[in-house]
Amino acid sequence: MLLIRRWSLALAMFAIFSCVVPGFAVAQNYTPLIVGWEQFFSVMAETIQAGGRPRVAGHIRNESGFPARRIQLLVEGLDAAGQVTGQTVVWLGHELPPGARGYFDVPAPPGTRHRVSVFAFDFIQSASLNAP
């Protein structure tokens, strides 16, 4: 009976740690949360070296007619075959009015080249009341 309790305890601990410890997690690639983000934003990015470390720098332009806020960028590292080797999601850090550019400079995830897309955003929409 004592042996069964120990095995049950060991199994329960394994289940808990497999959910908590990152080493047990299965890798999963992120994809932008908003399909068709390209119709609202344009992104220009390049991989640069700064302080001996690779970084991804560039800008995002709001092509829509609405101000955008809470903008998150998905930065992906790619190998020579175009397969994703690393990902990171970063905040742009400020609102972006229509037609405006927002600049970013972030550490590059592992990869020989990099791709940047808009991961998530919110449009700011407000109603205006024009009284006669």
Keywords:
single chain, 132 residues, mainly beta, three-stranded antiparallel β-sheet, 1 helix
Strand order of the largest sheet: 1-2-5
Could you spell the SSE succession in H and E letters? HEEEEEE
The fraction of residues in strands falls at 35-45%
Please give the radius of gyration in angstroms: 22 Å
In whole angstroms, how far apart are the ends? 83 Å
Would you give an account of this structure?
This protein has 132 residues and is mainly beta. It is built from one helix and six strands. The protein has a three-stranded antiparallel sheet with strand order 1-2-5, with no helix packed on it. A three-stranded antiparallel sheet has the order 4-3-6, with no helix packed on it. Strand 3 and strand 4 (84-91) form a beta hairpin. The protein is elongated and about 60 Å long. The model is unreliable at 20-26 (pLDDT under 50).
Describe the structure in brief.
The chain has 132 residues and is mostly beta strands. The protein has one helix at 2-20, and strands at 41-50, 53-62, 68-78, 84-91, 101-107, 113-123.
Write the layout of secondary structure elements.
Blueprint: H1 2-20, E1 41-50, E2 53-62, E3 68-78, E4 84-91, E5 101-107, E6 113-123
Antiparallel strand pairs: 1-2, 2-5, 3-4, 3-6
